[in-house]
Inverse folding.
């Protein structure tokens, strides 16, 4: 969670993000499979005015309930985001705003569905969604406070047993909801009799299994796996025996099967009791085996005991088990291994790449979709848990590389399975399955990591470390820093725009009607570009949280920077770097997105440089703090180079472009690392080393720049290098190569000095931690 949440205890930040993401999910799920069909506006309005109110039978009740349930979390989450921890007056205002807003969203979705012929539009959906929104608001008034307390309690450090108990009941709530979906409930004896006649009540064990042995094994295994986490978590509580846990799990399964008798569309199958018993036994056995390995020899597992087999070959046991589970996954998803390798068949199966996520799940029922979601995620969750266990058992120096390898396995293994299924005639290949499997692996990794990091005993409050006492605050940042930097940069930009020896592109940056205002806005943009990534690197966020925080933070970074640059410089100067718009989008949307992709590169590399310096100064950072920037750079390459439509910076890059892009990223990283190292406060004895690093960065950066830029460009009837084009005064008088490299050397030193001057107050607030607290986790 964010730092603000950790300090204030107010979970509104988390609720904001959850509500926003859930709103996107609601809109996206309501328009899948995204087959747009244009309609004249007048015709669409006329059709919408004539949408019917359908008469729903028992078979259509599930769809109505699904729409009702869809909007309950929507308004519940938005109530929390807008009013959690606030006064009754604010909650009342939020209520008055959300109920009509939810109704308007429902009407807007139904109207938009007219343009997607696969979707059914009816007044029933609007009524169900509006009612769901109203219920969500009422639910917040009734249980919002308790929900906030429950959410806040997850921020506290729990003993492993207490954490397992909390997770067990949360998981049980999910299993309960799944087993009564889609809530087409009935107490009519006639309807229950019809359910019996339709074969939805089965009292013969394993009598309804599919004829295909592989699919039958798949169903049995997944039904058993649903119960394994519950038994495992109940057993980890430490107060229950294996037999008691097994009995509790089986009794829960019996109760849920009885409840399913009153859910019309669900099948009550006695086979589910056998699979639940098997899953409960598996969970109990796993915990017993772990307890035997972790406890000291001859003693039962107790809190605070060190693992008896930590280190050595036993430390690699989780990875051996993970490899075994990978073999199980390959068997389950590739059986019966009837691969076809002829090109025509494989080509005919590649149409799955054109399907949007969850399109296949839309075709079936809501229950079937939820079942497949659970199956895909639960199969890959153990893989993530085993990898997390393996990483945690290794020495600290190995954890970063092993974490990166684990993330690659969690993303790559589902991709390998889906690509293998392309050659299997009876398998359905879908990118959604890869996404769900990947998310299931991440969920398993995160849950196992949280369990492994939890203490065996609750930590007494009196032992908490007063961080303020251990790390006295650094000297407050100089109040004159911001105005001085802005003033100095403003003068620098104004002078550069009027210097005849400067490149013509620089002289054209300022608007002629307001040069000083333009220079000030450019200075503000440069300050923002230099400081925000350092601030982002200093946020106290867990390693896994970085994977989401860095892309979102750099999205904000690029958006604000573009707004400042758009207000400061002429459009022609913006086109010179990012390319001219070609998509005919309204306003500046296309140009803004291209600039956001471009600015993501220096933003990500400034962030990496700051994290590198923090690690050098003793802060223990996991590999995820660095790998979080890699997806941003890959997306930026796609937006800048692959999607380049007009002349921009790409024409100055060497070929092949991927290697040139990597070399330019390395150039910027060296430049930014030298600046961050110079900005970082060090003892006087190490100042010489700071200057040595800055000087050493010049030849290294020049080498990467030489590899990344084109050595010869034929344009405007002349031949010149990319660096001559960038650093010459005009197109008619290209400077000689020695002069160009001299100019680059001066520019290199100037950029490092400017960046260090802008960033040093933010590095002053980073105390050196290595000597005081060797196990800092952020």
């Amino acid at each position: 969670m964010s730092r603000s949440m950790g300090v204030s205890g107010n979970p509104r930040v988390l609720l904001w993000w959850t509500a926003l993401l859930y709103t996107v999910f609601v809109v996206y799920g309501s328009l899948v499979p995204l087959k747009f069909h244009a309609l004249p506006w007048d015709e669409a309005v006329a059709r919408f005015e004539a949408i019917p109110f359908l008469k729903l039978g028992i078979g259509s009740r599930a769809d109505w309930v699904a729409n009702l349930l869809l909007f309950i979390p929507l308004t519940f989450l938005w109530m929390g985001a807008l009013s959690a921890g606030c006064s009754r007056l604010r909650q009342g205002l939020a209520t008055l705003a959300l109920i009509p807003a939810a109704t308007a969203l429902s009407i807007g979705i139904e109207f938009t569905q007219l343009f997607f012929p696969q979707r059914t539009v009816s007044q029933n959906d609007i009524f169900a969604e509006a009612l769901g929104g109203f219920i969500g608001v009422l639910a917040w008034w009734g249980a919002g406070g308790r929900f906030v307390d429950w959410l806040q309690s997850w921020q506290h450090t729990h003993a492993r047993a207490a954490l397992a108990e909390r997770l067990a009941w949360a998981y049980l709530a999910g299993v309960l909801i799944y087993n009564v979906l889609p809530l087409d409930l009935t107490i009519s004896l006639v309807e229950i009799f019809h359910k019996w006649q339709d074969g939805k009540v089965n009292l013969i064990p394993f009598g309804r299994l599919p004829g295909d042995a592989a699919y039958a094994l798949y169903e049995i295994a997944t039904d058993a796996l649903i119960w394994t986490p519950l038994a495992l978590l109940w057993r980890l509580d430490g107060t229950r025996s294996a037999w008691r846990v097994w009995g509790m799990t089986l009794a829960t399964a019996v109760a849920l099967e009885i409840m399913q008798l009153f859910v019309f569309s669900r099948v009550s199958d006695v086979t589910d009791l056998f699979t639940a018993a098997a899953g409960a036994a598996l969970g109990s056995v796993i915990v017993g085996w772990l307890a035997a390995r972790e406890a000291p020899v001859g003693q039962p597992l107790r809190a605070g005991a060190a693992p008896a087999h930590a280190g050595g070959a036993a430390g690699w046991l989780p990875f051996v088990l993970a490899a075994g589970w990978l073999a199980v996954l390959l068997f389950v998803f590739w059986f019966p291994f009837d691969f076809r390798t002829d090109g025509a068949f494989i080509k005919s199966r590649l149409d799955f790449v054109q399907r949007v996520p969850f399109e296949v799940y839309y075709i079936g029922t809501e229950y079937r979709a939820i079942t497949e979601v659970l199956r895909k995620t639960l199969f890959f969750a153990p893989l993530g848990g085993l990898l997390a266990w393996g990483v945690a058992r290794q020495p600290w120096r190995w954890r970063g590389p092993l974490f990166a390898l684990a993330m690659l396995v969690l993303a790559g293994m589902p991709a390998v399975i889906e690509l293998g299924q392309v050659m299997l005639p009876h398998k359905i290949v879908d990118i959604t399955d890869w996404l769900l499997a990947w998310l299931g692996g991440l969920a398993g990794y995160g849950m196992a990591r949280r369990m492994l990091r939890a203490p065996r005993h609750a930590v007494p409050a009196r032992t908490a470390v007063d961080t303020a006492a251990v790390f006295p605050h650094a000297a407050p940042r100089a109040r004159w820093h911001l105005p001085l930097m802005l003033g100095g940069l403003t003068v620098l930009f104004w002078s550069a725009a009027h210097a005849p020896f400067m490149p013509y592109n620089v002289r054209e940056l300022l608007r002629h009607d307001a040069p000083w205002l333009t220079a000030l806005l450019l200075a503000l943009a440069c300050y923002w570009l230099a400081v925000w990534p350092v601030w982002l690197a200093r946020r106290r966020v867990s390693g896994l949280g970085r994977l989401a925080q860095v892309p979102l933070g750099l999205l904000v970074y690029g958006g604000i920077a573009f707004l400042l640059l758009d207000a400061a410089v002429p459009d022609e100067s913006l086109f010179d770097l990012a390319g001219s718009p070609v998509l005919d989008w309204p306003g500046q949307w296309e140009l803004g997105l291209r600039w956001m992709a471009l600015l993501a590169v220096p933003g990500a590399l400034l962030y990496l440089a700051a994290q590198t310096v923090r690690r050098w100064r003793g802060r223990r950072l996991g590999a995820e703090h660095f790998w979080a920037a890699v997806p941003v750079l890959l997306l930026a390459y796609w937006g800048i180079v692959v999607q380049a439509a007009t002349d921009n910076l790409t024409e100055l890059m060497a070929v092949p472009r991927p290697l040139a892009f990597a070399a330019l990223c390395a150039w910027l990283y060296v430049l930014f690392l030298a600046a961050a190292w110079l900005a970082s406060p060090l003892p006087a004895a190490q100042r010489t080393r700071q200057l040595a690093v800055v000087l050493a960065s010049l030849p290294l950066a020049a080498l990467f720049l030489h590899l990344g830029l084109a050595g010869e460009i034929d344009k405007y009837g002349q031949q010149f290098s990319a660096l001559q084009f960038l650093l010459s005064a005009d197109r008619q008088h290209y400077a000689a190569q020695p002069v160009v490299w001299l100019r680059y050397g001066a520019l290199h030193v100037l950029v490092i000095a400017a960046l260090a001057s802008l960033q040093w107050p933010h590095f002053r607030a980073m105390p050196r931690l290595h000597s005081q607290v060797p196990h800092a986790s952020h």
